[in-house]
Design a protein that fits this description.
- The protein is α/β, with parallel strands linked by helices and 270 residues long.
- The protein has a single domain, classed as Rossmann fold, CATH 3.40.50.
- The chain is 34% helix and 20% strand.
- It is built from 9 helices and 10 strands.
- The strands form 2 sheets. An 8-stranded mixed sheet has the order 1-2-4-3-5-6-9-10, with helices on both faces. Strands 7-8 form a two-stranded parallel ribbon.
- 41% of the residues are buried.
Length: 270
């Protein structure tokens, strides 16, 4: 389906009925990464309407030369939410990586409507040089798998997947790889170094609704230590750092990911 926001065609999918859940994916990919990780969990709950959409210039959404910054990306996101749900409907919010940065922007601007928050490997320090990043650590590797990969395939996972086994690679190949060729490179370049023009993590009062922050101990993309800087913004937050996991923790530690997300959902409906 297509919704128009800020003169941009936004491609989206909806699953289930009930309380709306807005899901924001990461930089340079599409919504399939979120859908593949969350739908098997949400399938056991009958009270949530899950909304997945591709950010402008990514996936199957259109592009717009007027989108010049993360501020503009946030504005499109908020207009999309309003067009789809109406201006007063509350919602649950999830964000992966750059989507976790956008999610905190939505929270900053629309805090009264957000009923719960899930951040998966969120970008905290927007500029990479400001991030506290761990050294890469390879925890497990199937040598036969790696030797069968093409140089480009190995380049995709090297320094990115800390668990390089066939099950993880198959998920990565299905959920991430297809989207890597889709982004508008011009738009990607424009937003790459443009953080919000406001202090996204400065809130008048802490967010008081159920919050789950999931981080990978070996995440060399966004790290995990910076999340402690914003932890006090969430008075009902669980912050979990998963060992033997990097920026794809939902694939590398799938069982633990599912356990923590289910506990968060159970907290919401309790």
């Amino acid at each position: 389906m297509i919704e128009r926001a800020c003169d941009t065609d936004i491609s989206y999918s909806i699953f289930g009925q009930g309380f709306p859940v807005i899901n924001l994916h990461g930089y340079g990919i599409d919504h399939c990464s979120m859908k593949a990780s969350l739908e098997p969990i949400f399938a056991d709950y009958d009270r949530f309407q899950r909304i997945y959409f591709d950010l402008p210039g990514m996936g199957r959404s259109g592009t717009n030369p007027q989108i010049l910054s993360s501020d503009d990306m946030l504005e499109v996101t908020m207009q999309f939410i309003d067009h789809l749900l109406g201006p007063d409907q509350p919602f649950i919010l999830t964000g992966l990586s750059y989507g976790g940065y956008l999610a905190r922007g939505v929270l900053h601007k629309m805090k009264g409507r957000v009923r719960a928050l899930l951040l998966i490997c969120p970008v905290i320090g927007f500029r990479r040089k400001s991030r506290q990043l761990p050294d890469f650590r390879l925890w497990e590797q199937d040598e036969s798998l790696v030797s069968a990969l093409t140089p480009n395939e190995f380049k995709t996972i090297d320094q990115f997947l800390t668990i390089q086994t066939k099950p993880v690679w198959e998920r990565f190949k299905q959920e991430i790889n297809p989207s890597l060729v889709l982004p508008d490179p011009g738009l990607m370049e424009r937003i790459r170094d443009t953080e919000f023009s406001f202090e996204v993590d400065t809130l008048e009062l802490p967010f008081d609704n159920p919050t789950l922050i999931l981080l990978g101990r070996s995440d060399v993309a966004v790290g995990y230590k910076d999340a402690w800087k914003v932890y006090d913004n969430f008075s009902d937050a669980t912050l979990v750092v998963l060992g033997r996991a990097g920026h794809s923790l939902q694939m590398e530690q799938a069982a633990l990911f599912e356990t923590h997300v289910r506990a968060w959902l159970d907290q919401i409906i309790s």
